[in-house]
Each structure stands twice: as C-alpha cells, then as structure tokens.
C-alpha cells in the first residue's frame, strides 16, 4: 500500500493525499516499514558511489573514500534521516493548533514521510557522486517536495487553503533549518568523530 501511495503522490498528488488521509498508520509502522527503507536509499547509494566510483567536482579527477571511513559516515547519515523526519513531524504537531489543525503525531509523521519521498529517492544520484549532477537532481527533488508539502497540508491537516499556505511555509522553514543543521553536523562529525579517509581514484 505504501508503494502505491508513493507512486500516487507523483502522478496525482491531490487525490492521493485524500486517500492517505483516510488510512491510519502507527508511528512504529511508518518508521519501520517506510522511513527505514527510504532513509537507506541515499545512505547506501552514497556509500557505494564514494567508495567504488569516487567523488568528483568536474568529472576529471575522482577521489575515493576508504570503506572503513565511509561505513560509519553512512550509518550516521542513516540515523540522522530518522531523527530529522521524526523532529520535523514533531514540529508540525507542535505548530498545528496555531493554524487550526487537530491531528495526531502519526498523521504529521505520514505527511512528513510522503512529502520527503522525492528527496529520499533523489539519493540514488549518490551512486554517481558528481557535484553538478547531484545538485541538479537534488534541486528538482526539493522543488517537488515543496509542491507536495503545499498540496498535502490542507488535505492531511484538514484546514482551509489560506491557513494551509502559511502553515506549509512554516513547515518549509523548519525543514530548511533541519537541512542546514544536518549539513553543519555532518561537517563537524567528518572532522572529529568519523573522520573521512580519502584515496586517489
């Protein structure tokens, strides 16, 4: 059912959001059956790409990561995805009454997970970690994620379009802050707890 909904939000998002709203998922189900799989896509893809193909800026010189340093980085990234999704869902649940919403944390988690699906799937670009290619794919995925957010909030939260717009903007702000926080944390971890070891490709 999750795969069907995932495809539906790409082809006919507004109708699919209504279908998702009528189903009830537990937080445990969302984390174990959905986020656990989605978060693995970018983590595994980047691990394979950076250790087997190598990271490059322009395609002329590839720099490989050693497996011993890439593995803990991939695991840390995987866990970070869980934390990020859970935190954003909690933020939505915390803010909802301000905008007239009254749904459970589980529904906020479902909204967050399906909205972030394009970003998770864009992680497949990590199999070929060329900077410009990954940036383009990431921007396309982010654009569609924003679209899903603005179409999903009024349906899942059951609030008028005008309030939903401002609520979606608040959620987007939280999401961008979380993204910046993840990048900053990643840089700090790479320099301290999980330092990366590079080799020439």
TrEMBL record:
Q: Report if keyword Endoplasmic reticulum is assigned.
A: no
Coiled-coil segments on the chain, per record: none
Q: Where would you say this protein principally sits, based on its record?
A: membrane
- Spell out the Pfam families in the cross-references: Yip1
Localization per record: Membrane
Keywords recorded for this protein, A-Z: Membrane, Transmembrane, Transmembrane helix
- Its transmembrane ranges are 30-55, 75-95, 107-125, 131-153, 165-193
Residue ranges of every copy of the Yip1 domain listed in the record: 7-181
Q: What membrane topology was assigned to this protein in its record?
A: Multi-pass membrane protein
The protein in question is named YIP1 family protein
Organism of provenance: Marinobacterium alkalitolerans
């Amino acid at each position: 059912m999750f795969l069907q909904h995932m495809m539906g939000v790409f082809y006919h998002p507004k109708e699919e959001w209504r279908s998702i709203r009528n189903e009830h998922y537990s937080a445990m189900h969302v984390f174990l059956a959905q986020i656990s799989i989605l978060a693995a896509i970018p983590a595994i893809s980047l691990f394979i790409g950076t250790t087997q193909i190598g990271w490059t800026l322009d395609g002329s010189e590839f720099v490989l990561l050693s497996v011993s340093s890439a593995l803990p980085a991939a695991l840390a990234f995987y866990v970070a995805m869980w934390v990020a999704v859970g935190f954003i869902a909690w933020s939505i649940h915390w803010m909802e009454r301000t905008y007239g919403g009254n749904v459970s944390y589980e529904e906020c988690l479902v909204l967050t997970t399906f909205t972030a699906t394009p970003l998770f799937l864009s992680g497949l670009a990590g199999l070929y970690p060329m900077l410009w290619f990954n940036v383009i794919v990431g921007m396309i995925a982010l654009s569609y994620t924003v679209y899903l957010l603005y179409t999903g909030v009024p349906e899942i939260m059951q609030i008028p379009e005008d309030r939903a717009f401002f609520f979606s903007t608040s959620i987007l702000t939280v999401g961008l802050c979380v993204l910046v926080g993840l990048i900053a944390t990643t840089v700090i971890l790479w320099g301290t707890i999980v330092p990366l070891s590079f080799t020439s490709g």
